[in-house]
Amino acid sequence: MRIGFIGLGNVGSKLAGSLLRNGFDLVVRDLDRSAAATLEAEGAGWAGSPAEMAERADMVITCLPSPAASAAVMTEDDGILAGLAARGPGDDSPPIWAEMSTTDEAEVRRLAALVADAGGVAVDCPVSGGCHRAATGNISIFAGCDRATFERALPVLCAMGRHILHTGGIGSASILKVVTNYLATANLVSLCEALTTSKLAGIDLNTAYEAIRISSGNSFVHETESQVILNGSRDINFTMDLVQKDLSLFAAVAERAGLRLELAPVLIDIFDDAAARYGAREWSPNVVRRLEDATGVSVLAPGFPAQMVDDEAEEPGREVVVART
Predict the structure, then answer these.
(1) Torsion on CA atoms 284, 285, 286, 287, rounded to nearest 10
(2) What angle do CA 35, 277, 269 make, to 5 degrees?
(3) Residue 232 pLDDT
(4) Could you tell me if 74 and 80 are in contact, meaning their C-beta atoms sit under 8 angstroms apart?
């Protein structure tokens, strides 16, 4: 398959790199062409526009920072929809648009309908597991689409991720992505409070880290974000404004479902305050600074890395089968 990839940010560049490393014919595009320099040097082609890419590729992947950015790439005059329409009558293997951005499920369904009108098929397939796992191809990928499209897309998804979960119809993956990001945010805020409380109570923070890690309090967020908090870099390649976006998307899903949330509004207030204090582009784990500023203590400990690196060998991707019995 010839793959087009639009959006070479922190995650997108690493996913595109996995495709290239695994032998796919890859064409890339980003608003900043310098973001494609490494990939081009390694053999990727460059597309002059999203339309040009969509006219020639078997699958076009978008990995962009917001629903508005995805909509623009899809619907502008030189966008993906124009390229799909220019291909002419469809065949038994229509081109695939794969949305890997974290986006609104209602918006991805709207754009998927436009893709179908233009002769293509759509899958929303956001990733989860951290930027460091995107780099090694060991990240998890949710995929929402019909089963036939999933099976066509699966070899491509397996080249980018280790665990691939078919979540149901279009939009279902986007719902689960914001659900899991919401849980990660709640965990991050609770860990900030737990580590700060441990410090104030006179507990050695290296010991506190290990106590949490070997106990019922452990989590993926603790084993990653707690480390960069304690290091002081707070660099998890994820920023305050992205957390704000994810929380708002989760709240919108709950609102459409008729659920009145209790914890989510508190998290929204916390991150709105943190973004106002430290900047929307500050690393999200630096939400702990609110507690450091309030107490006058530093939540730091020696021996932790400034950035997370995935030290597991790349494994071939595979579908995660949902247990029904």
Answers:
(1) 80
(2) 100
(3) 98
(4) yes
CA distances from 8 to 27, 34, 139 (A): 12, 10, 17
- What is the Cα gyration radius of the chain? 21
The superfamily (CATH) of domain 176-295 is N-(1-d-carboxylethyl)-l-norvaline Dehydrogenase; domain 2 (1.10.1040.10)
Sorted by where each begins, the domain ranges of the chain are 2-171+314-319, 176-295
Residues 6+ apart with CB under 8 A from 20: 26, 39, 42, 43, 44
User: For residue 239, what is the DSSP state?
Assistant: B
Measured CA to CA, the distance from residue 292 to residue 230 in angstroms comes to 12
Divide the 325 residues of the chain into consecutive groups of 10 and give the mean pLDDT of each group: 96 97 97 97 97 97 95 97 88 91 95 97 96 94 98 98 98 98 98 98 98 98 98 97 97 97 98 98 98 98 96 93 90
Please give the CATH architecture assigned to the domain spanning 2-171+314-319: 3-Layer(aba) Sandwich (3.40)
In this structure, what token pair is assigned to residue 60? 């076009």
pTM score, whole prediction = 0.95
